[in-house]
Amino acid sequence: MRRMLPLWSVFVALMLAGCTGKEENWHGKDISGLMPELEFQLQGTNGQPVTAADSKGAIRLLYFGFTSCPDVCPTTLTDLRRSVRQLPEQYQDDVTTLFVSVDPRRDTPERLASYVDFFGDRIVGMTAKEPALRKLAKRYRTTFGYDDPDASGNYNVSHSSAVYVFDRDGDARLLLRPGLSPEQISEDLARLARESRS
Amino acid sequence: MPVSSYLLPYDFSPLTLLSYMLALGFYGVALLRMPEQDRPGSGRIITFTFGVMLCYAVMQTRFDYYSQYMFFVHRGQHLILHHLGPILIALSNPLPVMRFWYQKISPSVRYWLQPLGWIYRLLQQPVIASVLFVGLIYFWLWPPIHFDAMLSRQLYWIMNWSMLLDGLLFWWLIFDPRSPAVTSALGYGKRILLLALVAIPQMILGAWIVFSRGMVYDVYEVCGRAWPMPPETDQLLGGLLTWIPPAMMSIIGILIVLRRAMHEDGKFPKSRSLAGGNA
Q1: What is the tens place of the pLDDT at every residue in A157-168?
Q2: pLDDT value at residue A136
């Protein structure tokens, strides 16, 4: 059996590649079947645990970042808010953004709360102790790392620059790579919202 | 971080651990039980164990974490899984061990294992073996496929295992210790030809990565790098690792096969003159 593996693996991979190749009309990258469904248990801005079940039935946008992030995080979150605002009226409340701070040392619940409030009311800020964050990052095959602090104690955090999109059932569907315009994101979200309503 | 966490797997795979334990276990038991004259010397045993452990180390230690989040470390991982590890294993000539276990298999089981033998012989056709060897490298480095493979846990494991198994098949074909003069093993000339042929596409691919201006593999950008490194540097190092060491290993392989061919020169004069006489 072991000797057959190379052939089988090529075959399986080709099939998978074939599946993803068919739906090229998304602007984001189709990741159906590549990643596990949405699942996490983190701490919300009120100090209470937050899980995927709390936002069940909504399209979830999962994003890793930190509040001291100089440009990438604010840009991404602004783009996401703009793309949700461009959605047809009936879908606007169906999209929830999940902002996971990977910098729990600096991002206290209060700080996180005031940060996410700035980006609208359909966004949930959350964080956890580092091991729990590592576990979640690993589940979605991403990572984060800390730079050495400078003289005033500030440090940079490397994190994923992509947004993971989960449908109403919590299945991983799209990966929004940086460089997409809010219009493109909005089109994808609208399509996802329509498809899972019918 | 404690030292132990560098040795523990980043992404624990029970099947992988089991496979390595079985491989080493079967090897060890055969060494103990086989007759003295068949037993490989200590140099060969060390080479085999080192080759196996090297492959294990890049799959089931902290190294795997860096391979998932740095392109050049990933290229290093495949260099070991597809080249260095299998080369060491094939050079250690585990044939006596395989023969020992083959003799232990009952004839009825052997009958059912026959299809495996057919597939093995098919995959070891020189053309198929070399196309598979180069094809797998190109396949997994095809940017959309590479993106998916790094995102999906299953694909990632399929990728690494397929590289290792194909590496073992190919290098076993090249370093098969049986002499082509007296067995059906591949002739030395063909082995050298294969080694030279597979080196060329690898050099082209590596050079293409090295000289690409834009980002070819943006998945490392999207998923975050293990430590801050300029993406161009990462890609450049990864390209060099795809380009130079595999080409060097082909050359070393050619030298080893040449040396063997020269040692065997004139070693089997009788059978040759007989064959010549009959012709």
Answers
A1: 888 889 999 999
A2: 95
Contacts of A64 in chain B (CB under 8 A): 224
Query: Residues of B near A (CB-CB distance < 8 A)?
Result: 10-11, 19, 65, 68-69, 116, 119-120, 123, 132, 135-136, 139, 144-145, 147-153, 155-156, 158-159, 161-162, 165-166, 169, 218, 221-228
CA nearest neighbour of B185 among B248, B257, B275, B132: B257
Closest residue of chain B to A134, computed from CA coordinates:
B10
Is the interface score ipTM higher than 0.90?
no
**Which CATH number fits the domain that encloses residue A55?**
3.40.30.10
Q: Is A5 within the bounds of a domain?
A: no
Tell me, yes or no, whether A9 lies in a domain: no
Kindly report, residue by residue over A62-118, the tens digit of the pLDDT.
Answer: 999 999 988 889 999 999 999 999 999 889 889 999 999 999 999 999 999 999 999
Interval B193-247: pLDDT, tens: 999 999 999 999 999 999 998 889 988 888 878 877 888 999 999 999 999 999 9
Identify the H or E element spanning A160. none
Interface membership of A162 toward B (CB under 8 Å):
yes
Whether residue A64 lies inside any domain: the answer is: yes
**Range of A151's domain?**
22-197
Q: Is residue A191 part of a domain?
A: yes
Domain count of chain A?
1
Q: Do A3 and B119 touch (CB under 8 A)?
A: yes
Interface test mutation site (partner A, options B116, B132, B152, max chain A beta carbons within 10 A): B152
On whether any CB of chain B is under 8 Å from the CB of A37, the answer is no
CA distance A90 to chain B (A): 31
